[in-house]
Amino acid sequence: MLKKVSPLTLVQLACGSFVIGSGLIWYAQRNVQKKVRNLPHYKECFTIIAEHEKVISLLGKPIQIGQVDLTDRKSNFIGKDESQLRIPISGKFNSGFLNVHAKRITCEENKDGDTVGLKAIDNSNFVTNTIELELDDKTVLIYEKNN
């Protein structure tokens, strides 16, 4: 015969499931954020803006970087041939978003040995095409790759 399950046991089971599920979701989110931050065009973007005087004057130091909104698939995506990231950024004076547009370049497309962007490509990396700083009142083009 089956025993009657006490309400306390059910509450403990529900709470345990909630804690474990929340922990797994947090871990997955953190893992994807790390992968995004290791993308070559993400890193290249911050190399460029660290030396860009207009960005520093508009935002003010220190500059803080937020997390990419992984649920916004319209503004943040990595496709087969192109990638787009919308990165929250803030400083002492202002805050906004960095819009980073990149294109995948393969070695076959770069046979002449030209370095594209700031770095030469490995096998098949994304190379930054444009970086825009989007503020409340204006959008400033920070970087555009010359073709």
Order of helices and strands: HHHEEEEEE
Which structural class matches the secondary elements? alpha+beta
Number of helices: 3
Q: Spans of 5+ residues with little confidence (pLDDT < 50)?
A: 113-123
Into which percent range does the helicity of residues fall? 25-40%
Can you say what the CATH homologous superfamily is? Mitochondrial import inner membrane translocase subunit Tim21
The shape is elongated
According to CATH, what is the topology?
A: Nuclear Transport Factor 2, Chain: A
Radius of gyration: 22 Å
Largest sheet: 6 strands, antiparallel
Domain count, please report it: 1
- What's the mean pLDDT score? 83
Portion in strands: 25-35%
CATH architecture: Roll
What does this structure look like?
It comes from Parastrongyloides trichosuri. One of its GO terms (biological process) is mitochondrial respiratory chain complex I assembly. Keywords: Membrane, Transmembrane, Transmembrane helix. The chain crosses the membrane at residues 6-28. This protein is α+β, with helices and mostly antiparallel strands and 147 residues long. It has one domain: Roll (Nuclear Transport Factor 2, Chain: A), CATH 3.10.450.320. The protein contains 3 helices and 6 strands; from the N terminus they run αααββββββ. The protein has helices at residues 7-37, 40-50, 53-59, and strands at residues 64-65, 77-78, 82-90, 95-106, 124-134, 139-144. Strands 1, 2, 3, 4, 5 and 6 form a 6-stranded antiparallel beta sheet that branches. The longest helix is centred in the N-terminal third of the chain and has 31 residues, at 7-37. It is elongated. Residues 113-123 have low confidence and may be disordered.
